[in-house]
Design brief:
By secondary structure, this protein is mainly beta. The chain is about 15% helix and about 35% strand. It contains 2 helices and 8 strands. The chain has an 8-stranded antiparallel β-sheet. The radius of gyration is 14 Å and the shape is globular. The N and C termini lie far apart (about 35 Å).
Length: about 100
C-alpha cells in the first residue's frame, strides 16, 4: 500500500501570507519563524494601507501560535478589510509588511 501523509497548515495559510479576521492577525508559519520573537510592535500606514510588524523585546503585542489579537488595532485605524494578504519580509529592517488594500485569493 502507498500512504500519503497529511500535513495540515495553520488555517490553510500559504507561505508569505497573513490572514486578517475580525479579531486576529494570523501569520503563515514561515513569517512567524522570520520574526523570531514572541512580542511584536504593530503599526499602520493609512496612505499605503500597509501593516508593519516589528519584533521587540519589551512592549508590543504577544504573538501566540502565529496569532495576534488585533481587534482593537483594526477598530482604531478603521481597517474593515478581511481575508488573506501577501506578507513581505524586509531583510534590511527585519520587519514584515502586509498590504491590506485588497485580499488575495
Amino acid at each position: 500500500m502507498a500512504f500519503i501523509e497529511y500535513n495540515p497548515t495553520r488555517g490553510g495559510l500559504r507561505p508569505n501570507s497573513a490572514k486578517l479576521t475580525k479579531t486576529h492577525l494570523i501569520l503563515s508559519p514561515d513569517m512567524q519563524e522570520k520574526l523570531g520573537e514572541s512580542t511584536v510592535a504593530i503599526a499602520y500606514d493609512p496612505e499605503e494601507k500597509t501593516i508593519r510588524l516589528k519584533p521587540v523585546e519589551t512592549g508590543g503585542l504577544k504573538l501566540t501560535d502565529g496569532k495576534l489579537q488585533s481587534k482593537g488595532f483594526t477598530k482604531h485605524f478603521g481597517i474593515n478589510t478581511r481575508g488573506l494578504f501577501n506578507a513581505e519580509w524586509d531583510e534590511n529592517d527585519k520587519v514584515i509588511f502586509i498590504k491590506v488594500n485588497r485580499a488575495t485569493t
